[in-house]
Specification:
Elements lengths: L5 H5 L10 H4 L3 H4 L23 E2 L2 E2 L3 H8 L3 H10 L6 H10 L1
Antiparallel strand pairs: 1-2
């Protein structure tokens, strides 16, 4: 069994064809191909904390700067850190990838 992406763990329904995709929009993490494979995830599914527009606490979040404080205490972020160990791609590197590509 592969490692789960954020939408699978959090069950937000914002993945393409998800239960809430029409209502809330498709989550950027579910379609961000620049982060595909990062932390062994599909698209940005295991790097959601570095992306604007993801969902936390039942609402769509804004910019990275406004949301990262919440993300650093998120159970999914903790799960990815534990599963990836020393192989975890740093937030700084994720932001660089998003900026360059």
């Amino acid at each position: 069994m592969g490692k789960k992406n954020c939408w699978e763990v959090k069950q937000c329904g914002r993945e393409p064809s998800g239960a809430k995709a029409d209502e809330l929009g498709v989550c950027p993490a579910a379609v961000e191909i620049r982060l595909h494979g990062i932390n062994n995830g599909k698209n940005g599914g295991r790097a959601c904390w570095a992306m604007s527009g993801t969902m936390c606490f039942g609402s769509v979040q804004g910019t990275f700067a406004k949301k990262i404080g919440n993300c650093l205490h998120c159970d999914f972020f903790e799960l990815v850190k534990k599963e990836e160990g020393n192989g975890l791609v740093s937030t700084k590197d994720l932001l660089e990838i998003l900026k360059k590509r």
